[in-house]
Amino acid sequence: MARKEQENPALDMTPMIDVVFELIIFFVVTIKQEDLFSKLNANRPAPSSGAASSEQDTTVTIEVGKGRDANGALVYNKAPIKLKELDRNLKEVSRTSKKTPIVIRCSEDSPHKALVDVLDVCYRNQLFSVSIFTM
Predict the structure, then answer these.
(1) How far apart are CA 50 and CA 37, in angstroms?
(2) What is the pLDDT of residues 83-107, one digit of tens each?
(3) What distance in Å separates the CA atoms of residue 56 and residue 49, rounded to the nearest whole number?
(4) CA distances from residue 134 to 61, 64, 101 in whole angstroms, order as listed
(5) Cα gap 125→119, rounded to integer Å
(6) pTM for the whole thing?
(7) In Å, how far are 5, 25, 42 from 34, measured between CA atoms?
């Protein structure tokens, strides 16, 4: 008995895809949430007694507001300041510690150029621990 040769045998993928989707649904439904969280490596540093209060005192706060010119109005630790003076002050801060936290607070109507200028000054003085907030 002679067999007929099939030129292009076709494999139906529909049942295989159905099985894969059923397995995915099974594993998603049966996973335990606590198992997932128990395997995460999230070690937090232990609280230190005196270091936290001294760090808060050394935090530098810079406020960027709307000014008369495109540079905006800058306030350094609650005192008005110009950009060149800010550069000098941050140079002194970077000599003391390059890990000093810098907090930049921007008002909604402050020009973007002012924020970029302050970030440039921080980068120039190698102060990379910078946080930006809006007021």
Answers:
(1) 32
(2) 899 999 999 999 988 888 999 999 8
(3) 13
(4) 13, 9, 17
(5) 10
(6) 0.56
(7) 56, 19, 14
